[in-house]
């Protein structure tokens, strides 16, 4: 539990210094410095900013965890809390500018007794202000905040999620506390403030009114998008911690083969069958006609998880749009999955407006019930899953970055599905039009670990002698069998007219063989080569060339066992 608390705090601290906190800085600075600091003494000076931060922590944590669920149960508009916060911010700004408004606002609280000795006005005002500001706090969507939002939206709230929420909210408020106390300190120390307190209050009120209007029209987003995501690598490091993974993991087992793509670096692998797009929608840019993975067989599919108020997603979107424009005619189908982080992002009208404003032309499905999110065991905004023409997930990329690698993977799969396809020049700096993003990962042939990379007729079932046939096409990073083999958990053993075919990327190919006999290596480049095999399992080099996609076939004499292929 202590580890979970520390991870939540650190993740909150990282979020608190990210560009997403920018709209809150002038607000808490003004709010912290516009109290009656001129007459306050001692600890009372810091009471106002402290209670503002307490209100933000309580409000933000509660809304992140329970806001969506409560609004849904009560049948209230999903953006109610956001607009309530904007109205409160504008009301505070007006009360600072116009004393008559301040008198009206304070009147309902006049009969409430003070909560602390020596402070007749108590702490209720700053606390309520903090609670109102908490409804406007929209931090960057790191994996920890994603976990909190998903748990709240799906009503799957456990003790780990509560601990993570509390520690994250506290960490995220630390930077805001600094600015609130800075405002208080400046107001207390500057003689100019004491002499012109009224003018400073009016100026602060104007700042709050301007920020209320700016937040209402989402004006700060342009500035946030322009600032690089300098906290992304730190957020990814937090996301890899097992305590966070345990707390954020969606329910149900991971799809078969997901673990083989655990590094999530946009490199091509064989991750397993792509889950279906099971959300109820609505669908945008399709006339509300659903799309499906099965219906997109034959196309390379990019699934892009995003949410419209996520600044990370807004910085990520231009890359996805460029890929869609460049490769749609070559066979790429992009599907945007809008899974909401906050309650107001459930509103179909808001999502439709965001899609139009962003200039998104590919299909987008609203995943308000988190059905697709959970099916993919996703934990991140943004996140990408690249699916080949056979419906197999081949690459994953989480968060911002890795754009050149992802585009190269897209190009590789388009060539794999249609070798004669004419591709345009890459649209991402650093994407290589000819070379693959990496060498093929290790390929296992036994039944225990070979099913995810096997492509062909017949099933790998340990303990059987089976007849196999090669498929018409061998996808990259997979193997196929032809002839009769004895299948074991760790290897396949040739019985009659046995051949192994592997489609690979890389300069070098090695295989682990055992038994007594020979193996004929056919690569289509030059003469075939014969390898003598005699004895226990060991590594044999079979190709040493230049980096390139290639098909390698091995013809095996009876009794030869093949365990793995490795590449370099």
For the structure shown, list the relevant keywords.
568 residues; Glutaredoxin; Jelly Rolls; 7-stranded mixed sheet
Walk me through the structure:
Pfam families: AhpC-TSA (PF00578), DsbD_TM (PF02683), Thioredoxin_10 (PF17991). Its main location: membrane. This protein has 568 residues and is an alpha+beta fold. The chain folds into three domains: 2-226, no CATH class; 251-417, Glutaredoxin (3-Layer(aba) Sandwich), CATH 3.40.30.10; 443-567, Galactose-binding domain-like (Jelly Rolls, Sandwich), CATH 2.60.120. Helix content is 41%, strand content 20%. β11 and β12 (529-556) form a beta hairpin.
In a few lines, what is going on in this structure?
This protein is of the alpha+beta class and 568 residues long. It is 41% helix and 20% strand. A hairpin with a 6-residue loop joins β11 and β12.
Given as residue ranges, the uncertain stretches (5+ residues, pLDDT < 50) are 109-121, 151-155, 432-437
**What profile does the largest beta sheet have?**
7 strands, mixed
Q: Please give the radius of gyration in angstroms.
A: 29 Å
Percent helix range: 40-55%
Using DSSP, what is the number of strands?
Answer: 13
Shape by Cα distribution: elongated
Give me the side-by-side strand order of the main sheet: 1-7-6-3-4-5-2
Count of structural domains: 3
Number of helices, counting only DSSP H or I runs of 4 residues or more: 18
Please give the alpha-carbon distance between the first and last residues.
42 Å
Summarize model confidence as the mean pLDDT.
Answer: 74
- Structural class label: alpha+beta
Strand content: 15-25%
């Amino acid at each position: 539990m202590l580890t979970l608390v520390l991870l939540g705090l650190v993740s909150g601290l990282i979020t608190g210094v990210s560009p997403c906190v920018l709209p809150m800085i002038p607000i808490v600075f003004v709010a912290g410095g516009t109290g009656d600091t001129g007459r306050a003494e001692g600890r009372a000076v810091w009471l106002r900013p402290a209670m503002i931060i307490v209100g933000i922590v309580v409000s933000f944590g509660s809304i992140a965890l329970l806001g969506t669920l409560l609004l849904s149960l009560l049948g209230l508009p999903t953006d109610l809390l956001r607009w309530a916060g904007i109205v409160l911010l504008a009301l505070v700004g007006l009360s600072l500018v116009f004393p008559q408004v301040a008198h009206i606002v304070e009147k309902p609280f006049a009969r409430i007794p003070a909560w602390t000795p020596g402070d007749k006005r108590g702490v209720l005002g700053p606390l309520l202000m903090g609670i109102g500001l908490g409804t406007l706090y929209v931090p960057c969507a790191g994996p920890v905040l994603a976990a909190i939002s998903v748990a709240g939206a799906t009503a799957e709230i456990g003790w780990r999620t509560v601990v993570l929420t509390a520690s994250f909210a506290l960490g995220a408020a630390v930077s805001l506390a600094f600015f609130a106390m800075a405002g208080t300190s400046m107001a207390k120390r500057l003689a100019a403030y004491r002499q012109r307190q009224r003018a400073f209050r009016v100026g602060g009120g104007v700042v709050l009114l301007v920020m209320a209007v700016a937040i209402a029209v989402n004006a700060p987003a342009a500035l946030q998008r322009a600032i690089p995501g300098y906290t992304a690598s730190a957020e990814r490091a937090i996301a890899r911690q097992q305590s966070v993974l345990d707390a954020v993991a969606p329910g149900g087992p991971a799809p078969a083969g997901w673990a083989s793509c655990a590094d999530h670096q946009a490199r091509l692998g064989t991750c397993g069958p792509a889950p279906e797009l099971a959300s109820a929608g609505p669908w945008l840019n399709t006339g509300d006609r659903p799309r499906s993975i099965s219906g997109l067989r034959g196309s390379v599919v990019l699934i892009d998880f995003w949410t419209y108020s996520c600044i990370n997603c807004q910085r990520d979107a231009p890359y996805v749009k460029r890929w869609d424009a460049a490769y749609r005619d070559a066979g790429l189908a992009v599907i945007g999955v809008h899974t909401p982080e906050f309650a107001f992002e459930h509103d179909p009208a808001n999502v439709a407006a965001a899609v139009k404003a962003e200039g998104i032309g590919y299909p987008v499905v609203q995943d308000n019930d988190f059905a697709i999110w959970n099916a993919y065991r996703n934990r991140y905004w943004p996140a990408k899953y690249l699916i080949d023409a056979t419906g197999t997930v081949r690459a994953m990329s989480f968060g911002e970055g890795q754009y050149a690698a992802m585009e190269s993977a897209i190009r590789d799969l388009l060539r794999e599905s249609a070798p004669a396809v004419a591709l345009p020049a890459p649209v991402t700096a650093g994407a290589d039009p000819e070379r693959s993003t990496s060498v093929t990962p290790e390929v296992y042939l036994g039944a225990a670990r070979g099913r995810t990379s096997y492509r062909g007729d017949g099933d790998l079932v340990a303990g059987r002698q089976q007849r196999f046939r090669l498929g018409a096409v061998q996808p990259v990073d997979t193997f196929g069998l032809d002839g009769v083999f004895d299948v074991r958990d760790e290897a396949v053993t040739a019985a009659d007219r046995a051949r192994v075919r592997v489609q690979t990327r890389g300069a070098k190919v090695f295989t682990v063989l055992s038994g007594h006999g020979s193996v004929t290596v056919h690569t289509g480049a030059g003469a075939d080569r014969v390898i003598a095999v005699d004895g226990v399992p060991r590594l044999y080099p079979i190709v040493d060339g230049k980096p390139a996609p290639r098909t390698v076939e091995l013809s095996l004499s009876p009794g030869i066992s093949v365990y793995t292929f490795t590449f370099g």
